Amino acid sequence: MIETFLATLSPMLMMFLCIAIGFVLRKTKAVPENTAAVLSKLELGIFIPSLILSTFLEYCTMESMLSQYRIVLYGTAAVALSVAMGIPLARLFSRNADERNIYQYALITANYGFLGNAIVPRILGDEGLYFYLLFCMPLNVVGYAWVLHTLIPGQKGKKQSILRSLMNPPCVALALGVALGMLGVGAWMPGFVTATLKGLTGCMGPVAMILTGFVIGGYRISELLKIRKVWIVTFLRLFVLPGILIGFLWLLGADKLTLILALFAFASALGLNAVVVPAAYGGDTRTGAAMATISHAACIITIPLLYALLQQIL
């Protein structure tokens, strides 16, 4: 168990170091204030789509999709339970609609994208990342089509269609990757193209964590740590809810790999969208920033610990 914990801790510490770099850059004003916007666009528009395309071109085939369809079904079941738990729980944290939606977002989804995509290949390998992306397909649909829009203060943007919500680079790359992978396009794609995708993929994790640190660096840490409700929701996000979801999938007959994928998808830190989206519409970002700060610091230890425990139990 100790060996598993230490092996998982190493990539988590690497992510934490990148967060620290972003934090220092913000505090020292070594880079422009719009750096967060630039890094976010690079992540969502280039690095994450490259990671998805590179992975699916290499591992996605008709045979693998038919043999691994259960992973998608288990992911769908996990998301359904997460939504069923998150909505009523969020009502206990705030009566204000906008603030309640931030807690709802935190209780339904974790940072399965920026953080999950970064650490999974370092622990489970590239093929493990492929399975993880399959598991997270339903999360992407629910996240982009509904949960993300609940973070918009007031009624702005609430009427956007589901199809339009899903027309973003990561989701388009996912659909394209599945299609191209099953058609076998990766086998005859020029080497310089696949090499470029691999290179861009390598940027995804470090840049995402630098972005996280940069966003957190815009706030006074001492003020963020005073919000007691954030500590409670962080405990729920990192321990209680993942435990319930993993137990639920185990009862459904999920195999060991699926349970591990669920751990990385639902026991990750709270995402930056709770800061970025409200900020774009002039909303309050303090609660979201506190969630990101506390949960990212805590998950450096909690994810290796839970992964080691799960390996021991299974």
Walkthrough of the structure:
Helices cover 77% and strands 0% of the residues. It has 314 residues and is mostly helical. The protein is built from 15 helices and no strands. The model has no long low-confidence stretch (mean pLDDT 90). It has helices at 2-27, 35-59, 62-67, 69-90, 97-108, 114-135, 137-145, 162-166, 169-182, 191-216, 221-224, 228-251, 256-266, 273-280, 286-313.
Please describe the structure with a list of short key phrases separated by commas or semicolons.
single chain, 314 residues, globular, mainly alpha
Topology:
Elements lengths: L1 H26 L7 H25 L2 H6 L1 H22 L6 H12 L5 H22 L1 H9 L16 H5 L2 H14 L8 H26 L4 H4 L3 H24 L4 H11 L6 H8 L5 H28 L1
Helix pairs in contact: 1-6, 1-10, 1-15, 2-6, 2-9, 2-10, 4-5, 4-7, 4-12, 6-10, 6-13, 10-15, 12-13, 12-15, 13-15
Strand count = 0
Element-level helix/strand string:
HHHHHHHHHHHHHHH
Radius of gyration: 19 Å
Distinct helical segment count:
15
Shape summary: globular
Quaternary organization: single chain
Query: In percent terms, what proportion of residues is strand?
Result: under 5%
Poorly predicted regions = none
Structural class: mainly alpha
Largest sheet: none
What is the first-to-last residue Cα distance?
A: 12 Å
**What fraction, in percent, of the residue positions are helical?**
over 70%
